[in-house]
Amino acid sequence: MVDISDDTKGGYRRIELLTGPGRRRRWSAEEKARIIEETLAPGARVSDVARRWQLSSQQVFTWRREARSDQTTKPSDPAVLPLPTFVPIITETGVAPAASAVTSAPPVIEVKLAGAVVCVAPGMDGSTLTTVLRAIRASASRR
Prior knowledge:
Layout: H1 29-39, H2 46-52, H3 57-73, H4 99-104, E1 109-113, E2 116-120, H5 126-142
Antiparallel strand pairs: 1-2
Helix pairs in contact: 1-3, 2-3
């Protein structure tokens, strides 16, 4: 039979030591932004980042959602706008034209359609171009 007075007989008791942060921590906006930025890195997992910062992943997801809604509702400051990203231009392999030829030649658009190449000069009429492209497409469908 277990008696209440058994604990007072001088034996060692089990003690549980809790380590880690206490509850109700306060996070500054800079710390939240740093944590959110870590989760947006390519290949990063929210659960790993949350574990590293001793947070629950639900808390990090909430911060991310709040950050997205703040960006959409607040008027953006033109001085802080992100830089535009550009798609790289992939050119065909071949001989590059001479620099003097590029500056002196008027811009020309080449349209490749059904094995034909149509060069569109700057002053070409739009209706004429449409007629030519339709004729090429029709001749390709007859083959």
